[in-house]
Write a structure and sequence with these properties.
Strand content: 25-35%
Strand order of the largest sheet: 3-2-4-1-5-6
Radius of gyration: 34 Å
Number of strands: 12
Helix content: 10-25%
Number of helices: 5
Distance between the termini: 49 Å
Structural class: alpha+beta
Mean pLDDT: 91
Length: about 250
């Protein structure tokens, strides 16, 4: 069985929308870093659609978006911006923080395929994304609330799968007193032959016995199946017994 490595969670808290003329409010040098989404009009996909996912890890989100020329796109007055800040139990090192931003951007782009993202993510290998699991909180708009690298990468491609099949309920069996090692009776009243390793059947019916012949040491004797069942399962409800209480053949 393939061993699945421990998942690395990246949690992103989203807020917005912001307008282009509000980017000056997103230039806090301590906290305004992470991932951003741009929504607007697309000539094919329509209005208010996800156009772009980007990252800001060496400069603030506000400064980064100002450099991209969104004010020149069609219907720029209706551009909406959503900001995703990474969060967790404690702030990691700058290198770790930057790395998580890079991984999150790559996986989110790959999964959601925004209309304007022509950027290649080849620099982040499939292997590096396999155990990444992104949790999107807050106003994440059209992004999936959870994004699993295990689901979207090739890690599981070579696994062989089998559709689950019902194999039946394995009944409890108890040895029949006096015939231990020879015969057992199940909790529904079937007689099991230990020697042949199968349930005894009459006319292809495992419950066809009202009277069953048990043999040991060359001596055979007839027994009432219901009485045998009651002796071995005295505490079970009578409704559990599925065998024949009277002659049916």
């Amino acid at each position: 069985m393939m061993q699945i490595a421990k998942t690395h969670h990246i949690q992103i808290d989203w807020e917005g929308p912001y307008k282009l003329d509000e980017l000056h409010t997103l230039q806090n040098e301590e906290t305004d870093y992470g991932i951003y989404q741009i929504y607007g009009k697309h000539q094919i996909y329509g209005s208010d659609v996800l156009l772009y996912i980007g990252k800001a890890d060496q400069q603030t989100v506000g400064k980064r978006i100002l450099q991209e020329g969104w004010e020149y796109v069609n219907d720029s007055n209706n551009i909406k911006i959503y900001i995703g800040r990474l969060h967790g139990r404690q702030t990691p090192t700058n290198d770790e923080w930057s790395r998580e931003i890079d991984l999150a951007e790559s996986l989110l782009i790959y999964v959601h395929k925004p209309a304007f993202n022509s950027k290649s993510i080849a620099s982040v290998s499939d292997t590096e994304l396999q155990d990444i699991h992104i949790l999107n909180w807050g106003n994440h708009r059209d992004l999936l609330p959870e994004v699993s690298g295990l689901r979207w990468t090739s890690k599981l491609d070579d696994m062989n799968y089998e559709v689950y099949k019902f194999i039946g309920y394995e009944e409890i069996r108890k040895p029949i007193e006096g015939y231990e090692g020879y015969y057992e009776i199940s909790e529904t009243g079937k007689i099991y032959s230990v020697k042949s390793q199968r349930f005894m059947a009459r006319s292809d019916d495992e419950y066809g016995f009202h009277i069953v012949k048990l043999s040991k040491n060359g001596i055979s004797k007839n027994y009432n199946v219901y009485k045998l069942w009651k002796e071995e399962f005295p505490n079970l409800s009578e409704s559990m017994f599925k065998g024949a209480k009277e002659r049916i053949y």
